[in-house]
């Protein structure tokens, strides 16, 4: 899939994630928040806790190498997201 197609798919996935978070009572504080470690797709809040959301959108029936949503985010990606959240 061309880069533009992946970006369109990713944006659609982020939109769906935001819609679901709002439906569940979360306020969307930021989208595509950039830090020196990378981008945080969504920052949201419900009452006190702030949550950081990494959206992984797939066009097919399988998720990542292990066919689970968790498998789509490798160790480096999770570490980068953790580092990025420390700067918020």
Describe the structure.
With 88 residues, this protein is α+β, with helices and mostly antiparallel strands. The chain has a single domain, classed as Trna Endonuclease, Chain: A, domain 1. It is built from two helices and three strands. It has helices at 3-23, 75-85; strands at 27-35, 38-45, 50-53. The longest helix has 21 residues, at 3-23.
Percentage of residues in helical conformation: 25-40%
Main sheet overview: 3 strands, antiparallel
Question: Would you state the CATH class?
Answer: Alpha Beta
Which strand-content bin applies to the residues? 15-25%
CATH topological fold name: Trna Endonuclease, Chain: A, domain 1
> Widest sheet: strand order?
1-2-3
- Helix/strand structural class: alpha+beta
CATH architecture: 3-Layer(aba) Sandwich
Q: Can you count the helices? A: 2
The residue-averaged pLDDT reads: 82
| Stretches with pLDDT under 50, minimum 5 residues | none
Question: What is the terminal-to-terminal distance?
Answer: 33 Å
Overall geometric form: globular
Order of helices and strands: HEEEH
Q: What does the radius of gyration come to? A: 13 Å
Write down how many β-strands occur, each being a DSSP E stretch of 2 or more residues.
3
The number of domains is 1
Which properties best describe this structure?
Trna Endonuclease, Chain: A, domain 1; 88 residues; alpha+beta; 2 helices; 24% strand; globular; 36% helix; three-stranded antiparallel β-sheet
Outline:
Helix content is 36%, strand content 24%.
């Amino acid at each position: 899939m061309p880069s533009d197609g992946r970006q369109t798919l990713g944006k659609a996935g982020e939109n769906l994630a935001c819609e679901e978070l709002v439906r569940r009572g979360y306020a969307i504080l930021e989208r595509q928040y950039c830090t020196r470690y990378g981008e945080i797709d969504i920052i949201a809040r419900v009452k006190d806790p702030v949550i950081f959301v990494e959206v992984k959108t797939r066009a097919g029936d399988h998720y990542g190498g292990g066919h689970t949503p968790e498998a789509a985010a490798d160790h480096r990606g999770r570490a980068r997201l953790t580092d990025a959240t420390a700067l918020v």
